[in-house]
Design goal:
Length: about 120
Amino acid sequence: MDAGTTGGFERDASRVSREFWPKLKKVARSIPFAEDAVAAYYCAFDRETPLHVRATLIGALAYFVLPVDAVPDFLPILGFADDASILAAAIANVRMHMTDRHRDAARRALAEDPDVA
């Protein structure tokens, strides 16, 4: 994420908004952190979440949706290890801002969409 500019945040937020659900649908069955990723998504787009928290989560989610990253996602097991570690680090830093409402929404979204769960 382009941390120093609002334009970078808006660009990353737009990309995450557009590409998160299609990417999650493709890979949800093969990643153990799907619920955390969806809860992070809801927290990142919650207007009540402080901007610095939103920026942290948008950055981690943008890395998740990027087609090219440090370890290609198509590699078994290792492919999502870098995505998971970046998302886990982001969540650890902002955990107190991820509410039960975000986690409940994530569980509902995963339970309601058979293509994801």
